[in-house]
Amino acid sequence: MNDQSPLRLWLMRAGFVFLIVLILFFHLLPLETSPRQWAMPDLIIGFACAWAVRRPEYVPALSLAAVFLLTDLLFQRPPGLWAMLALIGCEYLKSAGRSLRDSSFPSEWLAVGTVIVVITAANRLLLAITLIDTPGIGLTLFELGMTLLFYPLMVLVTHVLMGVRKTAPGDLDGMGRRI
Fold first, then answer.
1. Residue pLDDT, tens place only, 24-57
2. Domain annotation covers residue 121
3. Is the CB of residue 49 less than 8 Å from the CB of residue 90?
4. What CATH number does residue 142 fall under?
5. How many domains is the chain built from?
6. How many CB atoms lie within 10 A of CB 33?
């Protein structure tokens, strides 16, 4: 099955949604009943950024908005705030994907890291302005650091296990247009 097949495109889009639902499932399992003093990396934003940089056509804005809104609702965050910020960040990465395609991995990592830091800071600022209780800054910074630290592993899983690779300069999309 080639990369420009409409079947492959829809399978990869469904695969992304399945991946996010799988992460949500394991995140919501009640494996620990006591509160933790540390935070796991935000795998959802990490995988969304990795897919947005590598193959933007696999993660359309509507599916990104839907999965981020679902995470807001399931994690009992203010509905739509994180979803909006994450969608804006992923769409920015999609638009910058052409320049990131030709760059090295450290520059991609820096660009994605910058976007995630800006999203997190904007989320925290907007929550503070609206006087909504936020978790401690230490916990937020730890989660942010873990997300940035685990991003290369998320890219590796995306590339090796899921077959989502960066587009090459001569690749065509499903309609025969240059990517």
1. 999 888 877 776 777 789 999 999 999 999 888 8
2. yes
3. yes
4. 1.10.1760
5. 1
6. 5
